[in-house]
Amino acid sequence: MSPGFDLRLAPTAVAVWAVTLIGLLAGWLAAAVAAVLALLAMPLVWPASRNRAWGRAMLVVLVLAGVAATGMAVRGHRAEHHPVRQAAHHGERLTARVTLTSAPIPLRGPSFGAQRAQDRALVRAALETADVAGRHVRAGGSVVLLVPTDQWRDLIAGQSVTVRGKAAPPRSGELTIAALQVFGAPTDVGAPPGWQRTAADLREGLRRTAAAELSPAAAGLLPGLVIGDTGALPPEVAQDFETAGLTHLMAVSGANLAIVCGAVLLVLHLIGAGPVLSVLGAGAALVGFVVLAGPEPSVLRAAAMGAVTLLALVLGRRRSALPVLSASVIGLLLLLPELATSAGFALSVAATAGLVVLAPAWAAVLRDRGVPIGAAEAIAVPLAAHVVTAPLVAALSGTVSLVAVPANLLAGPVVAPATVLGVLATVIAPLSGWLAGASCWLAAPELEWLAVVADRAAAVPGGSFEWLPGTAGGLLLAAVVVIGLFMLRGKRFRVLAAVALLVVVLLLVPVRSAVSGWPVPGWSMVACDVGQGDGLVLATGRPEEAVVVDTGPDLERSAACLERLGVRRIPLAVLTHLHADHVSGLAGLLGRFPVGAVAVGPLREPAWAMREVVRDAMAHRVPVVPMQAGQRASWPGLVLDVLAPDPALARTQTAEDANDASIVVLATTSAGRVLLTGDIELPAQGELVASGLELRADVLKVPHHGSRYTTPRFLHAVRPRTALISVGDGNSYGHPSPFVVDLLTRAGAKVLRTDQEGDIAILPGPDGPRHVSRGNPLRAVDR
Question: Which end of the chain is less enclosed by CB atoms within 10 A, N or C?
């Protein structure tokens, strides 16, 4: 046990977490084995537990780990052998009566093939009864519903509904019985509990008042700060917060609850309330906040972490904070075992540990060196939270942020007043719209400051750098952090660390891109590594200007690629078709670059995707223009000839034909002819070959990420020297097809994949196009 901290429950929390992970990831049988082993080990430890502290601690570890393992074995066995799970393994259709445990959450990003799932929402529910193949099943358990957003958006947690859908197995690492794909509206909709309806009305009141009183960015931020609702947040602002390391501000966390409960305690203290009344008041505020945000796992987690934070930072009981944190972890994992695989849970626990262990000590050190109390805590709190969570963030994202600490330092002072004013607006909106609007108006300067901090921090060159992703990367950075903290205890090492930090900030970061060999001078085209999607850039021959063809599946990667290339203006952004892996990054580009126009094909399906493109373009006053076969656009160093689609054919197509309705462009560049094909499949490829158009190209962007739906006849008509495949590493679609790669290779084409090469630049060469890969930037390959 370390001086000043009681660590006796920490090993128990770790053990409970470990056996819960075993049950979730390895199955109920592995959890049963762990329970048996814990039971067998108890007699061995029992003699030592009578008179030795370590023996008693070990016994507690074994007992609680055994309880957790037994619970996981029972739950896992019940879920695995549930009749609905068996139906899910066979893809059967069923009718079920369920009670919603969450409101519908619109899905984001690619899903359901290559289409964006924005018109689909996820709902968690408790199963009451089900009819499976004529059999009536009455049994509990949780299910996940994938539902149409428009038909379900008005439902809230607590309502009972009847649904009919197709059962599918759940994701690994969950105790969910099944996932139900529902394509219709719910029937027999029951009324929610009164308190759930009241909470939903309060949340809607906050959204409505914020939208009426604040700018779009501030109106999206306020519900995020108060209840974690980021539905109205502009995509570019959300991306700035992620890049700047400020995303945690927009999630319901222990910090939210600590702020609200702390404000209540302060008010009660000012009016002279005693300790008992103060505790009751803070407890009531905590319960009320949980009801307002919704008693979902993430909110319950936040409530537990917020209580621990209050204990440590408000009541000043540092020694008891770690046992309470450990007990909270144990209790939450026993109650909600699926939290064991939640990144948010791990980050919350780590951040809370940093706040109760490191922040007070670091604040005290700063105060001893003459730093004012408020400034010392403002520095110590975000620094401690960032240091302890950095390994987890690196493992999840593969990046380490250099701007997160200063961004949090600048943002920290305004978070509490903005949150408190947001809560006041929420509570008083049903009573007085004027007073609620006034609260939002008072919060406006703080919210605008947060948006400015995020924007400026995200724009810092070299503000983050790549790190080894996954468990290995997280452990490596954790080791670096531990060694660094140990070394900083010595004055000499602190001086060296300060010098090293100055060198990194003033020298290494600014010149990193200059010495990396990227961007390579004279590039004609770049296939950006945007993951499982397309993001292509064509030089126009004018400095700092490029045409973009497709924008990838997320807000950041395509925009980051353009920034690395030094692009400052986009005269035209072409969206080959309206699937997520081609259009989801558009808002990120519109928020960072001047865009002349956005071009779309004649098929405006899916309709919801088209609405979103138009909305984002209008928000930045960018026109949306049609593009179809026969059109030409030219710049000094680039000519685009549109080969497809034929608008007459597009009029007979539906959303299911979006791939074959892709815009196909033949680009004439300084490196030769480049054929860009979107996601066209067998029918559209056949029509192009039969059209008699000259398809011969030096470079081919292989259709549909190299899928099997590519004909040898089409590839033979193109006969490319270089074949680019834009594809995500480890994607679940099996892209690219080995058959297609083999066809191209045997035909003499150099096959280049973004999942292997990173960003790929095409340049003119003496004997045809050559390429330089950012993954290996010092080696250029001539053809």
Answer: N
Structure tokens at 245: 């390391």
pLDDT score, position 727: 92
Distance from C-alpha of 399 to C-alpha of 500, rounded to nearest angstrom? 20
Question: 253, 252, 224, 256: which is closest to 237 by C-alpha?
Answer: 224
Residue ranges in the chain modelled with pLDDT below 50: 1-3, 109-118, 512-513, 515, 776-783
Burial class (CB within 10 angstroms; exposed 0-12, middle 13-18, buried 19+) of 514: exposed
CATH architecture of the region 87-192: Beta Barrel (2.40)
Report the distance separating Cα 418 and Cα 440, nearest Å: 9
Q: Report DSSP letters for 53-68, one per residue.
A: HHHHHHHHHHHHHHHH
Q: Partners of 640 in the beta sheet?
A: 633, 667
| pTM score over 0.70 | no
Give Rg (Cα) of the chain: 29
Could you give the CA distance from residue 450 to residue 476 in angstroms, rounded to a whole number? 32
Q: Which two tokens stand for residue 414?
A: 């305004």
pLDDT at 113 (0 to 100): 31
Single-letter residue type at 277: L
Residue 634, pLDDT score: 92
Would you call 661 helix, strand, or coil by DSSP?
Answer: coil
Question: HSE-up of 289 (CA within 13 Å, CB side)?
Answer: 37
Q: Dig out the tokens for 291 from the structure.
A: 């009801």
- How many Å separate Cα 677 from the centre of its chain? 29
In 431-532, DSSP assigns E strands to 464-466, 525-527
Strands 546-549, 536-539: pairing is antiparallel
Torsion of CA 384, 388, 394, 395, to 10 degrees: -160
Per-residue pLDDT, 777? 39
* Per-residue model confidence (pLDDT) at position 778: 35
Do the Cβ atoms of 697 and 673 come closer than 8 Å? yes
pLDDT of residue 206: 85
Q: Does domain 525-773 have CATH number 3.60.15.10?
A: yes
For residue 298, what pLDDT is reported? 66
CB of 553 within 8 A of CB of 533?
Answer: yes
Return d(Cα 143, Cα 95) in angstroms, integer: 13
| CB neighbour list of residue 440: distance below 8 Å, 6 or more residues apart | 209, 210, 213, 214, 222, 421, 422, 425
* Contacts (Cβ under 8 Å, ≥6 apart) of 734: 708
Say if residues 583 and 610 touch (Cβ distance below 8 Å): no
Q: What are phi and psi of 618, to 5 degrees?
A: -65, -35
Q: Work out the angle at residue 412's Cα, subtended by the Cα atoms of residues 407 and 416, and round it to the nearest 5 degrees.
A: 150
DSSP 247: G
Please tell me the distance from the alpha carbon of residue 474 to that of residue 392, in angstroms, as a whole number. 6
- Chain length of the chain: 783
Q: Which stretch of DSSP H or E encloses residue 599?
A: strand 598-600
Beta bridge partners of 164: 95
Q: Quickly count: other Cβ atoms within 10 Å of residue 270's Cβ.
A: 8
β-bridge pairing 722-725 and 750-753? parallel
CA distances from 107 to 98, 149, 591, 640 (A): 20, 9, 22, 35
